[in-house]
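Hypothesis: this fold can be encoded by more than one sequence.
Test: take the structure tokens below, design a sequence, compare later.
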């Protein structure tokens, strides 16, 4: 769960450091053995993440986030995280 909290904090920091924005959608569900959350902002930043305990010590997490850079490029990152690390896939478009 510590990983999920850190990643959530990083995503919010990126979102709000970019510019001020209002929340369009937001949800979260946190349980002892699983979680999911997501948000969408008026500045076109969007994120979703979910995870569950595989065993007593291992979280399996997957998610995505996307945003538009100041020069108009659309960036989307999909990822998973497991006992072997963080596995991102980055897509760029104009």
């Amino acid at each position: 769960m510590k990983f999920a909290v850190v990643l959530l904090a990083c995503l919010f920091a990126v979102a709000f450091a970019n510019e001020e924005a209002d929340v369009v959608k937001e949800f979260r569900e946190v349980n002892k053995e699983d979680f999911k959350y997501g948000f969408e902002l008026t500045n076109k930043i969007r994120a979703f993440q979910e995870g569950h305990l595989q065993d007593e010590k291992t979280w399996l997490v997957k998610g995505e986030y996307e945003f538009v850079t100041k020069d108009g490029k659309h960036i989307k990152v999909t990822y998973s995280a497991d006992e072997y690390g963080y596995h991102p896939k980055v897509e760029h478009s104009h």
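The chain is about 20% helix and 55% strand. The mean pLDDT is 85.
Hypothesis status: open.
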